Amino acid sequence: MSQPTFETLLYDVADGVATITLNRPDRLNAFTPKMMLDIIAAFDATDADDAVKAVIVTGAGRGFCAGADLGSGAGTFDAGAREAERRAAGDTGDLTRDGGGRVSLRIFQSLKPVIAAVNGAAVGVGATLQLAMDVRMASTEARYGFVFSRRGLALEAASSWFLPRIVGASTALEWCYSGRIFPAQEARDRGLVRSVHAPEDLMPAARALAAEFVNNAAPVSMAVTRQLIWRGLVADHPMEAHRADSRSMRLRGASADAKEGIASFLEKRPADFPDRVSDGMPDLWPEWSDPDYR
Which of 28, 224, 2, 4 is nearest to 126 (CA)? Predict the structure, then answer.
């Protein structure tokens, strides 16, 4: 499968891992409507490509993403101007929805595990867009900031849903009330980040973690597990999770992957899982079929 190209991203697939690099280094990878559309399209590409079994997202140059591009000045977040900018970038979606949320919800729907390798400043939407990723790893050079209150704004990118589920309501409110910039180690200490690495060690560590997924797990099982965990966070009762788990066990238990997984264990050899994500995912959450959830 040929690899797509993007205006604001670099995209590469090697050893089962797609690396998506935010690529506006002269602007510290500041977020634009075109970047929004590119990220959504990149995740469409990773889902469609069975050669991709995990995804790493990082930034080019010194920054991960320094937030929204403020090149338009004080009118940057004016609704009319923002919608016109998005339309000019080719956005044919609902222009009343915030762009960061469009990205977060697309990442939420990903069928592949997603690792953030945060190499530098991650401020505003640069912090919130990674909340829908599964694992966040950071360089010692990384800095986080949920700075919206300092810009006269409030939360976006569905972060009011994601952030308190990751770090708890108290920490989420403290960071968002203050709007302060804080170091990667604080993010690690308070549960936002899995691990902190020297700059030169960040991408090797992210690739090593991705390789654990790629080399040992069935791709369809990872896709199913990802949705069971994320969607289970909003189940009203454990019975909803039980029903979804039961559908999963029934369908996956009869799969070629399950037969191979058991055979490889008994024969003491690496598994070669035959099922592919593109062949169709089991419908574990039929109540989530509403297209408005994308």
Answer: 28
- Check residue 89 and give its pLDDT: 75
What does residue 143 show for φ and ψ, rounded to 5 degrees? -135, 140
pLDDT digits (tens, 9 = 90+) for 218-238: 999 999 999 999 988 888 899
Locate 234 and state its tokens. Answer: 């909003």
Domain that holds residue 242: 218-293
- Residues making up the chain, counted from first to last: 294
Band (289; pLDDT cuts 50, 70, 90): low
pLDDT tens profile 73-99: 655 666 666 667 777 777 777 777 889
Residues 108 and 66 placed together within one structural domain of the fold: yes
Query: How many CB atoms sit inside 10 A of residue 255's CB?
Result: 17
| One domain, residues 26 and 145 | yes
What is the helix (H) or strand (E) element at residue 65, kind and residue range?
Answer: strand 63-65
Cβ pair 58, 206 in contact under 8 A: yes
